[in-house]
Specification:
heterotrimer; A alpha/beta; B alpha/beta; C alpha/beta; B: alpha/beta; Pyruvate-ferredoxin Oxidoreductase, domain 3; six-stranded mixed sheet; 6 helices; 36% helix; 25% strand; C: alpha/beta; 2 domains; seven-stranded mixed sheet; five-stranded mixed sheet
Chain lengths: 261, 183, 355
């Protein structure tokens, strides 16, 4: 995996199996993601929810730096591409001047939990009325499989070739747990999309998150525990087992904070 | 002759040297003069020495930064040591009596000692010593009238402090009297 | 206060004056972070905006502030941030993105002495950073250099106009002294700079149009070069915005070139020199980018030499040399690290020139 950037050409050469259950809010073009990657599932469900809620015209999304840097090629809503880690600051700027709009960010673990830690925590701490979608696959996919803040102990990456040594480089950072402690957070949940059942639960949680934004009572935060077959050097099927056996014990799914009744 | 008065006001933070300069600049502006007020700023303001330069002129002010002054108004010893030599020959040096141990020595300038702190104590408001000094200055160099200084204070002070206007006016008048050899 | 002729005239600090001007210019939002010597701007706006109109947010860092600017500008709002040198360095990444994404915004740098944490005293050490882009990549930002508190106000209006007309981040480069000093200012009325939400802004995709995307990512080099060509074309078209102030240059043997605070000190030195019979003129660029190369080049035909005065180690002097193009000698007088030259030392430098 020496790939260091994404070539747009890929997208004009469809070779993936096209799955026709896609919402109108999703632009019909081949994904640039690797086979088996969960980004595509996450994108589709987010856009399903936008369509079901009928909020396409009021949604403004913020894309990160990472594999999903081109999220705006697929999500048919107004979007802004943020600098690496700054999506929550960008979303703050948008929401403050367009308070009647629904603003969300879509960020990976490197973007949100390493370089963007400050922007993320402070946006939540201010209780910005935005939705932060945090897709965590424990690795830097775009740059070729380096260690992420959420990389598991012992996990091999291109910058932890002997496995992540926590004595040397610290522990997997649990941003969602941190965020749940902040009074500015309104709804915090961790989900996954590695099985059809998990996808259904994720979609339900995501819909709630979008709906809770209307309360204007703080930040909604949805983590998606996901995979990276290429970076993990596994087949898609193996990566699903890895999520089940390794990722979920470290990042258990469920609501961490729900609105008080 | 057209007016171009370059003033330094210096003392400890908290003695009101910056606000004295602002009040003077504001009053002169109300009089239609060109003015600039340039403070020293930074950590030294927190209890250390503070000073400001005020320029009042009939002409457009080019440099707001000057190194010699027509007038120095000093309210502590370090400021006297710093600015006595910066007064232009024939210029004016006003100093607050109680804060100066080693008196100025220059003979080519007009040196005036004002017991502003003592006078402010008599008024039972030690914060108005700066206005006593300003009154004394305006007696020596009447570049604006006291009425305009009061207008400036009225505009610069928040409404809730307007009850302090009379005592400031008294302080200005006492300062004038002291500089006039009275008091 | 009013002078009785309907004018709104006040005695104001530079930092408060540009903040007030921004409100009057219809600024929708300000995002900033405290740093001496410009914190009065954020303090003023957090006090005034809740009573009037707009948004003000104290961000967690300059990095966050400039990215809030990116977001709000992308959503079509009229936005401003301000900082001082170390904080402006932190913003450079964001400014590069804003320039590439072609978003309008106004930036104010109240320059202090450096490098490093440096000093909080006034400096012009950020000239290169300001006029050469500042961050990564081939971009420039128009730079306005006020010399008075009144210009701190006027250039806010001018800055927003340029930013929006050219879709570019626009910088006001002042220094600590201009931020801290008080002068008489005449404030323009509120609402005198109209603003409409542009059609490219992210305001929510409606059925009648494609989705609007704000990005600075152009992976294919062919596309990226096109974007660069468009930017360069835009920068060339800004040349009509060049402004400067020339005084006593017609008969001048020596032309002193300076901007901002040092231009005022130089003007005083010019008057002192004239009194001594030395024919000195002064030239003050008001726009540092684009730079008045042509006007200065013309002066090289009549003046015998140039003296550049800056509060740095010699930065604008390179632009003056480019303008003069070897036709005349160009001298330099500078103070650094927060020191301000006084008129006497500039006069001495003038007297030292052997014509």
């Amino acid at each position: 995996m020496e790939r260091t950037f994404i070539e747009e050409d890929w997208m004009s050469k469809p070779d993936a199996l096209v799955y026709d259950n896609h919402p109108e809010t999703l632009i019909d073009r081949p994904l640039h993601y690797c086979p088996g990657c969960h980004h595509g599932v996450a994108h589709k469900e987010i856009m399903h929810v936008v369509e079901e809620l009928g909020i396409q015209s009021e949604v403004i999304g913020v894309a990160p730096v990472g594999c999903s840097v081109f999220a705006y090629h697929y999500m048919n809503v107004d979007m802004q591409e943020a600098a690496h880690g700054r999506a929550c600051a960008v979303a703050t700027g948008i929401k403050r001047v367009r308070p009647d709009k629904t603003v969300f960010t879509y960020q990976g673990d490197g973007d949100l939990a390493a370089i963007g830690t400050a922007e993320t925590l402070h946006a939540v701490n201010r209780g910005e009325n935005i939705l932060i979608i945090f897709i965590n696959n424990a690795i830097y996919g775009m740059t070729g499989g380096q260690m992420a803040p959420t990389t598991l102990e012992g996990m091999q990456t291109s910058t932890t070739p002997y496995g992540r040594n926590i004595k040397d480089i610290g522990y997997p950072l649990k941003m969602t747990d941190l965020v749940a402690h902040l009074p500015g957070a309104y709804y915090v949940t961790r989900q996954s999309v590695h099985t059809p059942n998990a996808v259904r639960k994720f979609k339900k949680a995501l819909k709630k998150a979008f709906e809770y934004l209307k309360d204007e009572r703080g930040t909604c935060f949805v983590e998606i525990v996901s995979n990276c077959p290429s970076g993990w050097k596994m087949t898609p099927v193996e990566s699903v087992s890895y999520i089940e056996e390794k990722m979920l014990p470290e990042f258990p799914v469920g609501d961490l904070k729900t609105p008080e009744k | 002759m057209s007016l171009n008065e370059e003033i330094v006001i210096a003392g400890f933070g908290g003695q009101g040297v910056l606000s004295m300069g602002q009040t003077l600049a504001y009053a002169a502006m109300l009089d239609g003069k060109e003015v600039s007020w340039m403070p020293s700023y930074g950590p030294e303001m927190r209890g250390g020495t503070a000073n400001c330069n005020v320029i009042v002129s009939d002409e457009r002010i080019s440099s707001p930064i000057v190194s010699t002054f027509d007038t120095a108004i000093v309210l502590n010893q370090p400021s006297l040591e710093k600015f006595e030599t910066a007064v232009k020959p024939g210029g004016l040096l006003l100093y607050e009596a109680s804060t100066i141990v080693n008196k100025p020595t220059r003979e080519d300038i007009d040196v005036v000692e004002i017991g502003a702190a003592k006078e402010a104590q008599k008024l039972e408001k030690k914060q108005v010593a700066n206005m006593v000094m300003l009154g004394a200055y305006l007696c020596k160099k009447p570049i604006v009238n006291v009425g305009l200084v009061m207008d400036a204070l009225r505009k610069a002070l928040p409404e809730r402090h307007h009850k302090l206007l009379p005592i400031n006016e008294q302080a200005l008048e006492r300062g004038k009297a002291l500089a006039n050899g009275g008091g | 206060m009013s002078e009785g002729n309907g004018k709104d005239v006040r005695l104001m600090k530079g930092n408060e004056a540009f903040a007030e001007a921004a409100i009057r210019a219809g600024m929708d939002a300000y995002f900033g972070y405290p740093i001496t010597p410009q914190s009065e701007a954020l303090e003023y706006l957090t006090r005034e905006i809740p009573k009037r109109q707009g948004v003000v947010v104290q961000a967690e860092s300059e990095v966050a502030a400039i990215n809030m600017i990116y977001g709000a500008a992308g959503a079509g709002a009229r936005v401003m941030t301000s900082s001082s040198s170390p904080g402006v360095s932190l913003m450079q990444e964001g400014i590069s993105y804003i320039a590439s994404a072609e978003l309008p915004c106004l930036l104010v740098n109240i320059n202090r002495g450096g490098p490093g944490l440096g000093t909080i005293q006034p400096s012009q050490g950020d000239y290169f950073q300001s006029t050469r882009g500042g961050g990564h990549g081939d971009y420039r930002t128009p730079v306005l250099a006020p010399a008075t508190v009144q210009e701190m106000v006027d250039f806010v209006f001018e800055g927003f106009r340029i930013a929006e007309e050219y879709r570019t981040p626009t910088l006001i480069l002042a220094d600590g002294a201009l931020g801290q000093m008080m002068e008489r200012v005449e404030l323009p009325p509120e609402g005198s700079l109209p603003h409409e939400i542009p059609s490219w802004a992210t305001t929510g995709k409606t059925p009648d149009r494609e989705s609007n995307v704000i990005t600075s990512l152009f992976i294919e080099p062919e596309k990226m070069e096109k974007v660069n060509e468009k930017l360069q074309e835009k920068y060339r078209s800004m040349e009509k915005e060049i402004t400067f102030e020339a005084e006593n240059v017609e008969d001048a043997d020596i032309v002193v070139v300076a901007y901002g605070l040092s231009s005022r000190i130089s003007q005083k030195a010019m008057h002192m020199a004239r009194e001594k019979g030395i024919r000195v003129g002064s030239f003050r660029p008001k726009t540092l980018y684009p730079f008045p190369y042509e006007a200065l080049g013309k002066l090289a035909e009549t003046a015998k030499s140039f003296l550049v005065v800056e509060m740095n180690a010699g930065q604008m002097v390179e632009d003056v040399k480019l303008a003069v193009n070897g036709k005349r000698p160009v001298g330099f007088k500078g103070r650094m690290g927060g020191m301000i030259p006084d008129p006497d030392e500039i006069l001495a430098a003038i007297e030292n020139i052997d014509n």
